[in-house]
Amino acid sequence: MFNIKVNPRKAKQNQDLQSLSKEELIDRVQQLESHVIQLRNLLKPKSVPEKHEMKQKAFDHKKYAKRHVLLQVAYVGWDYAGFVVQEHTEKTIEAEVFKALEKTRLLESRETSNYHRCGRTDKGVSSFGQAISIDLRSNLSEGKGVFIPDGHQAKVGNTVEIDYVGILNKVLPPEIRMIAWAPINQSLSARFDCRQRTYHYYFPKANLNIERMRVASQSLIGEHDFRNLCKMDVGNGVIKFDRRIMDIQIEAIDDDKANSYSMIRLKLIGQAFLWHQVRCIVAILFLIGQGKEETTIIQELLNVERNPRKPQYGMASEIPLNLFTCTYSDDDCQWIYDAESLRYVISGYQTLWAENSIKATMIKEMLNSLEGLLDDKIESQLKGLVYGVEPKTYLPLMERQKCESLEERIHVYAKRQRIEVIETDANCP
């Protein structure tokens, strides 16, 4: 026999339940379920809303003055669709820069920011010294470039300016970095007040005769009409193609100058450049370096009276091109560098360098092994650096089919515009 103890209170509750009708039992169960739900809600920990769900407090720009500044922007542009914002993609350097400026509350809007860019680098082109001028929020109430817009009430007494470079680099993608900033007068424009622009173009020596390229390149120095060494942009109102090149240098970067894998840098300095001008110049210099064209071909292309129509040829690749510096008067611009920000930028770019250098070293080792299996020497390093199909038999430039002349392009564009105006008028009620 088991000795079982019965709880008197529980026995009474069971007896009470047994006396209830079916409807009363259902009602009792529903009450208990409702009570359980209430208890669960009381015991449930309060959930913290996601960051994007939290209502952000409106930032009051009217509590701050503004400052007109230059920013030096560096970027590796290989995976971007160019610098300038575009409608069909968000993958542009400019779009990322403005996302960072808005996220850090450094500006109210692009429309009111007095913004100018120095250069419009194309898809895949990089830069170390791109410059933009812009009005940003300031901690100060006075100083070079500082102004207080109508309706703003800047705090007086602050002596430390916002760390523009540091805070922007914390929110920009790793390929894009701010290098320095400079306070400037409100009237200064990154585009119109730039004294000179310097482009670098990197390429392997391959089978090029670098000395022939140097000789030919000297014909570019000075002011010339470069319509045969650019892509004519008549649709955007560009009908004058006179530009001045101040200097051009072609130098080996590596110590082993005789090696076909050694890297060469072309440095081109000018006040302003035309659309695809540098890439067209490099493409022609490649032909000269390969012995396919004479060094005098540059002079022929610059003589637009005798050669008003550009011969068809492929441009050099955009990947090796870098807008390296944008230069301003020392009176207008004194760049401010921060040691901590420079360390941050260097560390990040060292990571990018290591990744790409490892890839290049791995491929070079594979090439060394492959080349050891052949007796003859292959020098095709330039093959992917010029667009277009390479013909089996080379046709000299001046014997090729020619593009439309400038006058023909203007005529065609004007005719197209007239047709569009007529069609628009016809469709209007």
TrEMBL record:
- What does the similarity note say? Belongs to the tRNA pseudouridine synthase TruA family.
Domain Pseudouridine synthase I TruA alpha/beta, by residue range, is 216-329
User: What GO terms in the biological process aspect are recorded for it?
Assistant: mRNA pseudouridine synthesis; tRNA pseudouridine synthesis
Pfam families from the entry?
A: PseudoU_synth_1 (PF01416)
Keyword line: Isomerase, tRNA processing
Looking at the record's lineage, which domain of life comes first? Eukaryota
HAMAP family cross-referenced by the UniProt entry? TruA
Q: What is this protein called?
A: Pseudouridine synthase I TruA alpha/beta domain-containing protein
tRNA processing found in the keyword field: yes
Specify whether Oxidoreductase is a keyword of the entry: no
Note the Gene3D superfamilies from the entry.
Answer: Pseudouridine synthase I, catalytic domain, C-terminal subdomain (3.30.70.660), Pseudouridine synthase I, catalytic domain, N-terminal subdomain (3.30.70.580)
The record's listing under PANTHER family reads: PSEUDOURIDYLATE SYNTHASE, TRNA PSEUDOURIDINE(38_39) SYNTHASE
The terms describing its cellular component in GO are: cytoplasm; nucleus
Q: List, alphabetically, the InterPro entries matched.
A: PsdUridine_synth_cat_dom_sf, PsdUridine_synth_TruA, PsdUridine_synth_TruA_a/b_dom, PsdUridine_synth_TruA_C, Pus3-like, TruA/RsuA/RluB/E/F_N
One GO MF annotation is: pseudouridine synthase activity
